[in-house]
């Protein structure tokens, strides 16, 4: 187990680089950091004072990173990893985005009018689309209440975001409790307190809803998008794409806050308010590993692309451990 030291306060998000050698993190200190997972050295720090970082994601080519921020910023920032001193400045970007998305030069409002913490940001392979969501379905106002917002990215920095398409998967009174995207980027899953939807994010029709017995606290899709894991309080449930329940497992002593499939699909990791991480077999429910590091509440976890490492972010910092 390796502890990566540098953040001040809670670490809320973590993402492995496509090469598996680096990991990015963000937290309440407003910084986005990139680490060498072998040496634990902090390679780069991207500051954004007074704005908590709730989500980070690498571009599939590994040359760009995006950070999603909380109140009062409620926006995203792109970082150029090939030239660390060069990044797309938000203030100069805002006008271009606003004009392309909404057709207006009225800059009295934040672009896209995002009104809540950006809790999920993910590039959809091959990297020309970005999927955003917040924890309320009404967070965006580009065409109604929505649960996720796919944004088509332009390769030219001068027109970084070219278009948006809203996906009304939840009604305007629903809270987005969890969201997940498959490794190939074709399948998405979104959960509210009442139901779960799973299907192609770009489909013309909204996928069917499956009733949730209780509020879903976390979701994870396997790489192929053929299995969905969700958590209800301290239990993990695994479903097939048609909503058929395969297994339900109990083991944590408190609410589960994060889930992640290992890339080969043979294991699911769960994090809980009981301050532990458990790795399960999705087929049998057997606990393959248990970790208790005293990190406090754990907010995010992710496997490395080869499945050999597991990164965990929580109130007590950032940890990378052997997952095999």
Describe the structure.
With 324 residues, the protein is mostly beta strands. It folds into two domains: 11-171, YVTN repeat-like/Quinoprotein amine dehydrogenase (Methylamine Dehydrogenase, Chain H, 7 Propeller); 175-292, YVTN repeat-like/Quinoprotein amine dehydrogenase (Methylamine Dehydrogenase, Chain H), CATH 2.130.10. It contains one helix and 27 strands. The chain has one helix at 90-102, and strands spanning 2-4, 11-16, 22-27, 31-36, 42-47, 53-58, 64-69, 76-80, 118-124, 129-134, 149-153, 161-164, 178-181, 187-191, 195-200, 209-211, 216-221, 228-232, 235-239, 245-250, 256-261, 268-272, 276-280, 287-292, 298-303, 309-314, 317-322. The strands form seven sheets. Strands 1-27-26-25 form a four-stranded antiparallel β-sheet, with no helix packed on it. Strands 2-3-4-5 form a four-stranded antiparallel β-sheet, with no helix packed on it. A hairpin with a 5-residue loop joins strand 4 (31-36) and strand 5. The longest helix is centred in the N-terminal third of the chain and has 13 residues, at 90-102. The two termini are 12 Å apart. Residues 88-113, 136-148 and 154-166 have low confidence and may be disordered.
